[in-house]
Amino acid sequence: MIDYDALPEQRQSLIHQILTETGRVIGADIARKLGVSEHTIRRDLQELARQGLCKKVYGGAVSQFKQSASFETRMAQNVPEKSQVARKCAELIRPGACVFIDAGSTYVAMVESLPADLELTIVTNSPQIASVLSGRSNIELILLGGKVNAQTGSTLGSEPVNQIRGMMFDQTFIGVCGLDPQVGMSAVYYEDACFKKDVLAQSNEVIAAVTADKVSQVARYKVVPCEEIDIVVVSSDTRMENFRHLNMRIEVAQA
To answer: How many other C-beta atoms can be found within 10 angstroms of the C-beta atom of residue 69?
Structure first.
């Protein structure tokens, strides 16, 4: 039997492995599993955080969020999973609603799958989403103005914020960089996080499409707690156990 109390490198390697597989570790649980003190595990998490391998949260840690690739790069990643989640999101749209759709590769796939006869008002800060919908005469399309951020694929800044403050949305499909049961929803870029907060303040129902790589992840800037998200759409509920007690509906997309 391994004496983990005397082998810090092996402890930290195992903790990192668990983080990679599950996205989160609870300090007290790991201490019991390895037969060491919680203080020892806190030191291990501190060292892993120093190495950039995790982010400490209350009671444990989550795996370190990987810096987001460019929008064009993300469009080509995890395509089958995104398509699966996108179709489920499209089913949730209510006919005749005023819908805000945030920038994101999953939401580009969502609008591509909308029924041809669906009548909606759609507001978006994504030129890509606007391009997909531009020929749809049954959709009133509003593209928010502003400078386009190459990383988010969206218009950001004071112009789109001022525009949405004069609107009310029946439904909002919000982009998610990280979703953690304790920290909530988070974003990589400060300007994007501020914009999302303003959008959600104008929204009656908030829906978040979340791929597996974003579950139990914490990006740099907090947006809202999980309780302010009404519906989360995921491809699998494998990593959603820690979210079950929260006041939000989890929809699992069918393959």
So the answer is: 12
Judging by DSSP bridges, how do beta strands 184-187 and 139-143 pair with one another?
A: unpaired
Torsion angle (degrees, nearest 10) of CA 139, 142, 147, 148: -20
- 166, burial (CB in 10 Å: exposed 0-12, middle 13-18, buried 19+): exposed
pLDDT recorded at residue 66 = 62
Q: Tell me what pLDDT residue 216 has.
A: 83
Write down the pTM of the prediction.
Answer: 0.79
Residue by residue, DSSP assigns 130-166 as HHHHTT-TTEEEEEPPSEEETTTTEEESHHHHHHHTT
- The CA-based angle 68-71-75, given to 5 degrees, is 105
* Beta strand pairing call for 231-234 and 249-252: parallel
Residues in the chain: 255
**Mind listing the pLDDT tens digit for each residue in 145-184?**
989 988 888 999 999 999 999 999 999 999 999 999 888 9
DSSP letter, residue 227: G
**Considering just the CA atoms, what is the radius of gyration of the chain in Å?**
20
- Single out the residue of 227, 99, 120 nearest to residue 170, CA to CA: 99
